[in-house]
Write a structure and sequence with these properties.
Layout (H helix, E strand, L loop, with lengths): L5 E4 L3 E5 L5 E6 L2 E4 L4 E4 L3 H18 L6 E4 L4 E5 L2 E12 L2 H7 L6 E11 L8 E2 L1 H6 L5 H23 L3 E15 L2 E7 L7 E5 L9 H4 L5 H12 L17
Helix pairs in contact: 1-6
C-alpha cells in the first residue's frame, strides 16, 4: 500500500491527502483529551464510534439540505471528505446551561435557556479557545458579517436537526460545537459544516435520568467513556455489526 501524505494531525483526528483533488481522508484516533490536552488518555474503540456517529449525523444533515464536507465512509475509522478552507472559529449552540456558561454567568447547570444561544470561540489551543464577539471576528478578518449570518443560520439548522434526532431516542441535546469551512464554486464561496459531529463535540444527557453520555464522562471521571458513546450509538442504531468487539476494533486499511 502506498504511503499516504499527512496534511494535519489534531488531538482526535488525522487528515491525509485524498485520492482525488479537493478531497481528504479523515482518520479518527482513540485519543481522549480535555482541558486543552492537559488530560489525555487512549480509549480503545473511541475513534470507531466517533467515525460512525459523525457519519450518521453528517449524512442526515446532507439529506435535509445542510451542506457538509462528508462524502462517504471508507472504513471503520476513516471518511472521505471535501477539502475546505476552515474558518478559525468554533460555533457553540447552547440549549441548556452547562459547562463554561454556568461558570461564567452563575447559572445552575441543567437550567433550560429561554432560547438557543449561539457563541463564538477563537480556535487557538495556546490561548484556551477564548470566547469572542462578532466585533472581534469581523475586525480581525476571520469572517465577514455575511459569513457570520450564514454561520448562525447553519448552526441553528444543525441544532433543530440534532435536537429532534436525539429527542427521538430519549437524549437531551444540551449543547454542541461545530466548525465551518469555505468551499469555492467559481468566484462564489459557500459555507459548509466540517470537522465532526460526535459525543466529543456535544453534551448529551439521558432525558429521563440526566446521565451524561458525552465527553464530560471523561472530563469529570464519571465512568467509562466508551460505554457512554456506545450507548448513544446503540440508541441511534449505528452500532457496528461487530459491536461485541467494539472495545478493540480492527483497523481496515
Amino acid at each position: 500500500m502506498a504511503r499516504r501524505t499527512k496534511v494535519y494531525e489534531g488531538k482526535a483526528k488525522v487528515l491525509y491527502e485524498g485520492p482525488e483533488p479537493g478531497t481528504l481522508v479523515q482518520y479518527f484516533k482513540d485519543d481522549a483529551t480535555a482541558f486543552n490536552a492537559e488530560k489525555h488518555q487512549i480509549i480503545d474503540g473511541k475513534g470507531v464510534l466517533n467515525n460512525r456517529l459523525s457519519e450518521f449525523f453528517m449524512t442526515g444533515l446532507n439529506a435535509i439540505g445542510v451542506p457538509t464536507h462528508f462524502i462517504r465512509r471508507i472504513n471503520m475509522r476513516e471518511q472521505l471528505i471535501r477539502a475546505v478552507e476552515m474558518i478559525p472559529i468554533e460555533v457553540v449552540v447552547r440549549n441548556v446551561a452547562a459547562g463554561s456558561l454556568s461558570k461564567r454567568l452563575g447559572i445552575e447547570e441543567g437550567t433550560a435557556l429561554p432560547r438557543p444561544i449561539v457563541e463564538f470561540y477563537y480556535k487557538d489551543d495556546s490561548l484556551g479557545d477564548p470566547l469572542v464577539s462578532e466585533e472581534h471576528i469581523i475586525a480581525f478578518g476571520w469572517a465577514s458579517q455575511q459569513d457570520l449570518d450564514d454561520m448562525v443560520a447553519l448552526a441553528l439548522r444543525v441544532n433543530d436537526f440534532l435536537s429532534g434526532v436525539m429527542m427521538g431516542v430519549g437524549i437531551k441535546l444540551v449543547d454542541f460545537k461545530i466548525e465551518i469551512g469555505r468551499v469555492w464554486e467559481g468566484d462564489f464561496q459557500r459555507l459548509i459544516i466540517a470537522d465532526e459531529i460526535s459525543p466529543d463535540s456535544c453534551r448529551l444527557w439521558d432525558a429521563a435520568t440526566g446521565r451524561k453520555l458525552d465527553k464530560d464522562v471523561f472530563r469529570r471521571d464519571l465512568g467509562d467513556l466508551s460505554d457512554a458513546y456506545t450507548e448513544v450509538a446503540r440508541r441511534l442504531g449505528v452500532m457496528p455489526r461487530n459491536s461485541a468487539n467494539i472495545a478493540k476494533p480492527t483497523l481496515i486499511n
